[in-house]
Amino acid sequence: MASPLTPSFLGKPIEICIVTRSHKRTLSSLCNLGIGPWRIYTCDSSNTTDQFYRGKASEYALLLCFAELPGGMVYEVIEPLVGGAGGNIFEDWLRVKGEGGIDCSPPNPHNRFIAETENMGFSQVHHIAYDCNNIPWEQRIKAFADRGMSVALQGRWNKDCRFAFFEDEDTGTTFETIAFEEGYDYPEPDEWFPAKEGESTEEGKEKEKEKKDD
To answer: What are phi and psi of 128, to 5 degrees?
Structure first.
């Protein structure tokens, strides 16, 4: 028997996220589709509090990239960083699924796409974030818990942005809810991609520094 349709609490989808091992490669592909420019930030224990991973404190480190889309939707790209002192669901996802959902078993010579792209590390959609109709934070957590989903990862980034992720085994996907303090706006990014006119990319800055050192 089909399950009855319960009242929705998810509200409006506000963000779609791709997880990758190489944010620059992924951003380049998305820019080719006209998605961008991108704000790039680091999310780690220096600017993120209440960091928890599967119920335990975890000083995870992530690279966050954001691009605004028409209609208020945000595109996000996340790259888990090796330097993080704790686990995170994005590293879990890449380790188990592989990027792009590509089978990590030996190459199949009869599947040209898999054979040619297996080692390139394609990205894939990891989660969609919802505003949960802006109900109070604890009510959001309870609404997910009432449906059998506990918090898989959470944190408070730059004091004004609270986030929590919930994994659903039945659908094999992840849901996020985000709450912003009133008047929230993006802080100045660590980097823009593509670089704004008159600004150097991080790679360019490194090369310039090397030339000066020589």
So the answer is: -120, 140
